[in-house]
Amino acid sequence: MDLKSLDLLNLGWNSVFDGSFRALADPTLVPARVVAEFRGTYRVRAARGEYTAQIAGKIRHLAKAREDFPAVGDWVAIASTKEGHARIECILPRQTTLSRKVAGRALSEQIVAANVDTVFVVSSLNRELNLRRIERYLTLVWDSGATPVVLLNKADLCPDTGAQAREVENIAPGVPVLLMSAIQGMGVESVQNHISRGETAAFVGSSGVGKSTIINALLGAAPLRVQPVREDDDRGRHTTTSRQMIFLPGGGIVIDTPGMRELQLWDSEEGLSRAFEDIATLAENCKFRNCAHGGEPGCAVEAAILECRLVPERQENYRKLQAEVRFQERKADPEMAREEKERWKKIHKAMRHKLRN
Question: Is the pLDDT at 4 greater than 70, yes or no?
Fold first, then answer.
């Protein structure tokens, strides 16, 4: 294996990306990875060094949506234009895509990071801990194709970390739950064990949970600026304002992302089934196949709630996220929206008829 191949492997290169790149059959291009994104420009790293890059006009011309542009973590094919500068000619197919709906009413996808192997869902063990928010993040991560890990930071501020961890384990079946105090250096090794050489991890979570402090602890230095949370409500300030790729001393790669105060799901049916697998398993034992778990006889989900095997808040959040995903699907599909509108018209008509009688 030559030095060039070794450098690419350290960047996360694998046989799938290699096959996609070879299919281009263009000797003037070289593979590179997007390590940072700025307004109108990108920073990419290839085997021979880093370049400031702009996208080719054909990419801009053919793009139909925001996801058609490069994102941090993408593998791209570049052509060198001058010393230290390059042009992105092609985006290689993504293996995983961590996405959310853009903030606000616009129906558009925002790619948080691409080609990520592991996503750490970071929450802090103080007043910020919110089980329902963690469920939402896990839905997003499972849908991306990456492997989730829940990271509970600021363990030094919690008098009973074991009880808090068990609560999170109950709503995250099969997902590792790690305890950490980044500011004290506790739990750093357990996080490092989930980031092997050449693998990419992303950290997601609300502002103030300590994502940048965690990355500084992994680096053994403090290149990322951090700010204290507000004392009155434990809410964080936006320290990280752009996505960037950071290379760890042990060979792993991490992506720091800005805090998300508004996290709306995007195309997350698969993610919902994985994040709420326990409810899906219970539903298989319901008397009726189309059981909505809302008072139907023989409902296994409601029986589990009555027997304290399932907390009602988890079931309620599952319904809420399901409704959110379906609402977005209807907005994206006019025919589905029309059918849904007709369905509700029939329901309301039947209700009015019943009242008149």
Answer: no
Partnered with residue 157 across adjacent β-strands are none
Both tokens of 322, joined, read 């399901």
Residue 23: strand, helix, or coil: coil
Strand-pair category, 200-204 with 118-124: parallel
Exposure string (b/e) for 145-176, b if CB count within 10 Å is 16 or more? Answer: bbbbbbbbbbbeebeebeebbeebeebbeebb
Per DSSP, helices labelled H in 220-307 are 269-275, 277-283, 300-306
Single out the residue of 275, 130, 119 nearest to residue 203, CA to CA: 119
- pLDDT tens across 221-274, in order? 666 555 555 444 445 444 444 678 999 988 899 998 775 555 667 666 788 888
Q: At what angle do helices 131-144 and 312-332 cross, to 10 degrees?
A: 50
Biggest distance spanned by C-alpha atoms of the chain:
83
